[in-house]
Specification:
Belongs to the NAD(P)-dependent epimerase/dehydratase family. Dihydroflavonol-4-reductase subfamily. The protein is built from 10 helices and 10 strands. It is an alpha/beta fold and about 350 residues long. The protein has a domain of about 230 residues: Rossmann fold. It has a 7-stranded parallel beta sheet, with helices on both faces. Strands 7-8-10 form a 3-stranded mixed beta sheet. The C terminus is likely disordered. The structure holds NADPH dihydro-nicotinamide-adenine-dinucleotide phosphate (NDP).
């Protein structure tokens, strides 16, 4: 399948490129700069050489018509996977920095596809558990999440702080996508992938550790000793392996039955306390980890929510296995030397 993947420089997208290429799909990925394209090119030289991987520059998804050119290709695209969206809390203006790129980026690409890429049959959008969860309900014991659950965040609440702003950005963008399909009746059907915290190997080249994506920063901070005296609350207690998230994005356009569905992809529960214990056990070189009596970071007392899982692969080994298997804590950042950087 000829696929357009947006946000190729991202943590999840890097794994998605890998799955796409290994499955034999022909990929064009959008990145913001030529430098970012060159980095990916160097990693996948053999695929670039045989014409299976190419690039399109889209510097800012928040601009009207940003994707007008990128959606046009020869041979034409059959599927689009849209992962690009800001996920960070380092913002001055929630609307401009988070909500606009998420919403305009999503509606913008759908408009461009409808206008100029009629051969596209399926669009897969990376949404989030943030678009499902209702923050006011806490852990909501006894509730089973389904596709009907939506974060009820209002525009006003979304403006209150960057965390709300991010959740609002994902909620409004996903809603806008479903509304687009309902109202505009395009040639394509939609699937959304709604992961909770995504962890796993960092395979995309980082310019520096400061550029580490938001979900993995928690692991970095733990290893750096920032949780030594008190472990912060875990927030969402659900996680998923990035490799499964990547598989889900690809399966969502490969499988006809994935049309018109939202997928909450998860591997199960985690707490920040467990995360620290796992690092301690498997990476003895990190000395400043919390002890068993350090306060914070545990599961809530309340009985746990039952989650309605729709995952393409529920059988991945647990979190402990993940960190043993991977080089999660030995980032290969440019100008730094592996794990010594932490
Ligand atoms: P990254 O920050 O690594 O990836 C974000 C991607 O979006 C990058 O390629 C980034 O480009 C691009 N991007 C952001 N803003 C713009 C913009 N204005 N114009 C063009 N490109 C832009 O994070 P993830 O890989 O984690 O996130 C990917 C997707 O997954 C996002 O939609 C995120 O909301 C979603 N998600 C992530 C979860 C997680 O725990 N990681 C959980 C649930 C959902 P650049 O690198 O050039 O900045």
């Amino acid at each position: 399948t000829r696929v357009l993947l947006t946000g190729g420089s991202g943590f999840i997208a890097a794994h998605t490129i890998d799955v796409l290429l290994k499955r034999g799909h022909s990929v064009v990925t959008t990145v913001r700069t030529q430098e970012k394209a060159d980095k990916i090119k160097a990693e996948y030289k053999s695929y670039v050489d045989k014409g299976q991987l190419d690039f399109a520059l889209v510097p800012d998804i928040a601009q009207e018509g940003a994707f007008d050119q990128a959606v046009v290709s020869d041979p034409p695209f059959e599927a689009v996977v849209h992962t690009a969206s800001p996920f960070h809390f380092n913002v001055t203006d929630v609307q401009k920095d988070l909500i606009d790129p998420a919403v305009i980026g999503t509606t913008g690409i759908l408009k461009s596809i409808k206008k100029s890429a009629p051969t596209v049959k399926r669009v897969v959008i990376t949404s989030s558990f943030a678009a499902i969860v209702d923050g006011d309900k806490g852990f909501w014991p006894g509730h089973t999440y389904s596709e009907d659950d939506w974060n009820p965040m209002t525009t006003k609440e979304g403006q209150e702080n960057p965390i709300n702003g991010y959740r609002a950005s994902k909620t409004f963008a996903e809603k806008a996508a479903w509304d687009f399909v309902k109202n505009e009746k395009p040639n394509f059907s939609l699937s959304t992938i709604n992961p909770p915290m995504v962890y796993g190997p960092v395979v995309h080249g980082l310019l520096s550790l400061e550029n580490l994506n938001t979900s993995n920063q928690r692991i970095l901070y733990a290893a750096q000793g920032k949780f030594k005296d008190e472990i912060p609350p875990s927030g969402v207690h659900l996680w998923v392996d990035v490799r499964d998230v990547a598989e889900a994005h690809v399966a969502a356009f490969e499988k006809p039955e994935a049309a018109n569905k939202r997928f909450l992809t998860t591997a199960g529960y985690f707490s920040n306390k467990e995360l620290c214990q796992i690092i301690k056990k498997n990476f003895p070189q990190y000395k400043d980890l919390p002890s068993d009596s350090t306060p914070g970071g545990d599961y809530p007392e309340e009985q746990f929510v039952q989650f309605y899982y729709k995952t393409f692969d529920e059988n991945r080994a647990g979190l402990a296995q993940l960190y043993k298997e991977t080089s999660m804590l030995t980032f290969e950042a440019q100008g730094t030397q592996g794990s010594a950087a932490i």
